[in-house]
Amino acid sequence: MSLDARLVVQQGSFALDVELAAEPGRILAVLGPNGAGKSTILGAIAGTVALDAGRLALAGRVLDDPSQGAFVVPEDRNIGLVPQDLLLFPHLDAVENVAFGARARGADRRSARRLATQWLERLDVAELAGRRPGSLSGGQAQRVALARALAVEPDALLLDEPLSALDAGTRSRTRRDLRRWLADVEAVTVLVTHDPLDALTLADEVAVVEDGRVAQHGPIAEVTTRPRTRYVAELIGTNLLTGDADGTDVRIGPAALVAADAHQGPVFATVSPSAISLHRHDPGGSARNRWPATVADIELVGDRVRVTTAGPVPLVAEVTPAALHELGLAAGDEAWVALKATEVHVYPR
Q1: Residue 97 confidence (pLDDT)
Q2: Residues 164-197 as b or e (16 or more Cβ within 10 Å = b)
Q3: Is there a contact between 311 and 294 (Cβ–Cβ < 8 Å)?
Q4: 271 class by beta-carbon count within 10 Å (0-12 exposed, 13-18 middle, 19+ buried)
Q5: In what order do the strands lie in the sheet with 304-310?
Q6: Beta bridge partner(s), residue 30
């Protein structure tokens, strides 16, 4: 039941060319900014967007291969889809919405309703069976839509921004429940999202898509500890630097950092904003990495303050409001940045 795909689609000036692989029982998150190609990927798998080149196979069955003239229409792909706007049928109650797939495949009304009731029970919304979508809350409608997608026992389950329409409180609860529900799904699950928390919470692996290409792909732990693009680094809240290492010395453009571990050749280096200390004057001491900088921007984020610095090695530092007040720093001020070598994490490019 695995998914094996190279999806090549040309839409006007936008070109998508990505390779994706996913195994049954595992969740692949496709993560990326708006316009990266996430919706095109979903459409290509679902069959609403035809490939211009490449090949899409699911559960050992070729669904789209332009070179062979093969194309399976959406309704014959055995794919369950939960679209962003859910698209529940407004004139049908919850149980009839969930029964729709089975009815479309030839099941009689009684057996389709029995199957639908079982899925509503599994998702803890059996009491909503007789209610129409217009009377459901966002979280309730989300569960009914998921039950409808799963009731057809799909080879692949596609989730398009499944939590984006929910308010913050409902989103948190539904995210927790969604992971529990998906744990027993035997199908390949592809989750398309722009929210890193959805990916981190729900997925086993992540494919980061930027400008129609996969910028990074792998297990969640690898992607979050070793980002390879600025977009990924910003999502997880760290500084990403590109340089060349010679032992523990890492040259970043005209400047250099000292790391704790030795490497050779092209590398990435990450530095946590919370590991950076700011000072009004040269702090001296044991920090081997310190330099003068200019405060470029100050932003309050929750109970922390992010301070963007311009200098030999531009970095974003994170301090408490009290620490910033004590320093008396404002945009345009001169300051010193200090960073221990043990806080510079280096890995090959």
Answers
A1: 96
A2: eebeeebbeebbebbeebbeebebbbbbbbbbbe
A3: yes
A4: buried
A5: 277-279, 334-339, 289-301, 304-310, 315-319
A6: 192, 207
pLDDT along the chain (349 residues), means of 10: 95 96 94 93 97 97 97 95 92 96 90 95 94 93 93 94 81 85 90 88 94 94 90 92 96 92 96 95 83 95 93 94 94 95 95
Query: What is the pLDDT, as a whole number, of residue 171?
Result: 83
Per DSSP, the three-state class of 318 is strand
Q: Is the pTM of this model over 0.70?
A: yes
The tokens describing 48, both together, are: 């609403």
User: In angstroms, rounded to a whole number, what is the distance separating the alpha carbons of residues 56 and 292?
Assistant: 53
- Beta carbons of 86 and 145 less than 8 angstroms apart: yes
Give the residue from 204, 218, 188 showing the smallest Cα distance to 58.
Answer: 188
Which residues have C-beta within 8 Å of that of residue 290, sequence separation ≥ 6? 282, 283, 336, 337, 338, 339
Q: Cα–Cα distance between 99 and 82 in angstroms, integer?
A: 15
162/17 Cα distance (integer angstroms): 24
User: CA distances (Å), 193 to each of 32, 233, 252, in order?
Assistant: 7, 17, 33
Who contacts 31 (Cβ-Cβ below 8 Å, separation ≥6)? 38, 193, 194, 196, 199, 206, 207, 208, 209, 235
The three-class DSSP label of residue 330 is coil
Residues 6+ apart with CB under 8 A from 231: 32, 33, 208, 210, 215
